[in-house]
Amino acid sequence: MDRLPQGARLIPIIFASDVTFLINFSEDKKAWLIYMTIGNILLRTMNKASKNTTVLLALLPIAPKMLGVVTRDAPQMQVKNESHCDLIKEIFAPIVSLKNCGLKVAYANRTVQLCFPSLSDWIADDLENVTLHDIQERSVRCL
Fold first, then answer.
1. Going by DSSP bridges, is the β-strand pair 9-21/103-106 parallel, antiparallel, or unpaired?
2. pLDDT above 70 as % of the chain
3. Structural domain boundaries of the chain?
4. Are 30 and 54 a contacting pair, CB within 8 Å?
5. Which of 3, 8, 76, 117 is the most exposed place for a label (fewest CB within 10 A)?
6. Does the pLDDT value for residue 40 go beyond 80?
7. Residue 95 phi, psi dihedral angles, 5° rounding
8. Reduced to 3 states, what is the DSSP secondary structure of residue 89?
């Protein structure tokens, strides 16, 4: 769809990720937290923690590094990359499915509008972006 229908509204969906260690002193056991918010929330509302405008959407496990034989590392990396792509596809599937048909949203003023969610941004620091999206040497397209 190139253009929105008359009177429809675009809802930009913003994702953010951050790494966290699951347990202190547990070597390299960590996970990626994936958060979601929408882009057309007023900034003064979005910055208030009490408004809960950002939600935790997923907790992606990160496989521990396999140290040792190099021949075992390549298959493990391939499985890790494929599983991350599959998980990201699952997370985005409901939003992507609304791309052409939209979603009727009821507003506080008792009106209903046809809205089209759109994957807009992914906020992460450079190291997280490189690790999560596997763009160190090559680009991996998950969607």
1. unpaired
2. 76
3. 9-133
4. no
5. 3
6. yes
7. -75, -45
8. helix
